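Form P-L/3: holo structure prediction, ligand NDP.
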Amino acid sequence: MSAVLSPPHQGVAEYVDQVMQIVKAKNPAEPEFHQAVFEVLDCLKPALERHPEFQKEKILERITEPERVLMFRVPWFDDKGSPQVNRGFRIEMNSAIGPYKGGLRLHPSVNLGILKFLAFEQVFKNSLTTLPMGGGKGGSDFDPKGKSDNEVMRFCQSFMSELQRHIGPDTDIPAGDIGVGGREIGYLFGQYKRLRNEFSGVLTGKAMDMGGSLIRPEATGYGSVYFAVEMLKTRGDTLEGKECIISGSGNVSQYTVEKLLDFGAKPVTLSDSDGFIYDPDGIDREKLAWVMDLKNNRRGRIKEYAVKFKKAMFTPVDKNLDYNPLWSVPAFCAFPSATQNEINAKDAANMLKHGVKLVSEGANMPSSLEAIKQFVDAKIMYGPAKAANAGGVATSGLEMSQNSMRLTWSREEVDERLHNIIIAIHKNCYETAAEYGQPGNLVLGANIAGFLKVANAMLEQGLV
Ligand code: NDP
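OUTPUT (holo model):
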């Protein structure tokens, strides 16, 4: 009964605690979702103190409950003619400020809890972009690794055969994420068009010849570097000559390296799920072009880098270690760009010990709660994912605008808009943190700023 009849003058800390208990009870066995919700709710306390109407109208209870969850069977034939079955998902989390928007992830680890955490994060991230986009996320436990192009196509067509009922250019606009790049978006778009007999901007991350936007593939990595530049500016510093450690070697990592080189920094690591490479000479443009071909065309493994470039070292993943040695490589900046919870408390301690003064999160929720606490307590420049990697979805928003207007902006125009959006996001987070009494704490700033816009729109729209 107490959850239903929560006392009107209950303190904010107790209210947050109570909502957290409800979230855990209603969403058992979803630790990543609990983690993402806790991180946001814990930061919102000063905003809830200032705005008692949010508690009165049960905004936290409402914002943590997805508007709609779709879960469906995805049957497809492999190349041997054997039937295969995967599970497909789409979480339509919140549409208070715009149609649902968020990527599709294809990875064997995908489950309901992981997609709910991603969809929840997406709500606040999209709010920060300044564009009118609600939050969603989807995907499947299908593993594209080792599959032929035809197998990937048959999977994508089957997945879209169900998803097409629920999405649309004014309803829900998916995009890429882990395991979903240009090839997958092409297959998904083709099947949507065929089933709906409509050529529209229903997906973003499309190739240029089907309504894509210039700079979209680059946007998340570029944005994460632009965010780092903004953080450095507040301390009168630049990226010039700084050693940078980067995890992952996919879309986000590749364009992070490219933009770091533009700013004169020295990227020295990349990784995949088998291990990481460290190149003491730095990853230059020529080596990056080789990595892009390896990953995007030949679909090879990062350990091949150390065979090709002799001074580089490859360190394989050691499952017996309770930390990732990548995060012990001495550097000034870190760009985690692979996956969630890739930095634990021990990794964070190693980073601080080895000189890291700036973390800009390309991946979603790459740092555990304990790791974040260490970064915040150490007062290093810490750019949380929902702010630092918002460049990807922001540019997806720009792709939607171009599709609606049926025109294409130049590379320079999209890049300039992306850059200005990142500058605005950083400013908003920075000023909000100061306004709520914790200057420099961009986690608090991002969570409060992202939340306020969505929560106010929810209040204005009544109990829906
Ligand atoms: P890609 O699939 O292009 O690349 C993912 C990279 O991370 C690969 O190198 C992959 O290695 C590695 N990786 C994935 N899962 C794991 C794991 N469990 N353990 C170790 N390494 C892993 O994905 P993206 O670059 O698009 O996405 C990377 C991160 O950025 C994700 O957290 C995503 O949510 C986030 N992001 C992406 C955006 C985008 O626009 N693409 C936008 C905003 C956030 P392997 O090949 O061995 O699996």
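COMMENT: The first helix runs from residue 12 to 26.
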